[in-house]
């Protein structure tokens, strides 16, 4: 799939690439490369079998208007850690964490 097709798929599935990224050719190129790496990891990931769990705290952050995943699905992250789990929802779509960096940093600081 070429970059244009990938961007079109992201627009359909996740509500679109944020305008500030789309408007900057360098940022868009970086975003597309990062997205391709994310997809490769997703496609090759094998979940450990059995009762293996992480022993580190997890904070999951999602957008309140995310069309790709809902809060119930995000809550599923609590099943992979024996430590603390926190789910934080911020205003926005799938890319809200990229668009609301200040809020993400506040959450990370608070949860540390």
TrEMBL record:
Residues 3-107 form the Thioesterase domain. It holds the Pfam family Thioesterase. One of its GO terms (biological process) is lipid biosynthetic process. Gene3D superfamilies: alpha/beta hydrolase (3.40.50.1820). Coiled coil: none annotated. Belongs to the thioesterase family. This is Thioesterase domain protein.
């Amino acid at each position: 799939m070429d970059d244009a097709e990938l961007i079109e798929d992201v627009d359909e599935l996740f509500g679109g690439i944020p305008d500030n990224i789309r408007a900057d050719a360098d940022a868009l190129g970086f975003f597309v490369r990062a997205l391709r790496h994310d997809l490769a990891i997703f496609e090759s990931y094998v979940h450990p079998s059995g009762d293996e769990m992480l022993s580190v705290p997890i904070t999951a952050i999602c957008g309140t208007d995310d069309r790709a995943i809902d809060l119930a699905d995000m809550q599923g992250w609590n099943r992979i850690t024996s430590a603390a789990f926190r789910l934080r929802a911020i205003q926005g779509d799938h890319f809200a964490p990229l668009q609301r960096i200040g809020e993400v940093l506040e959450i990370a600081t608070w949860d540390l």
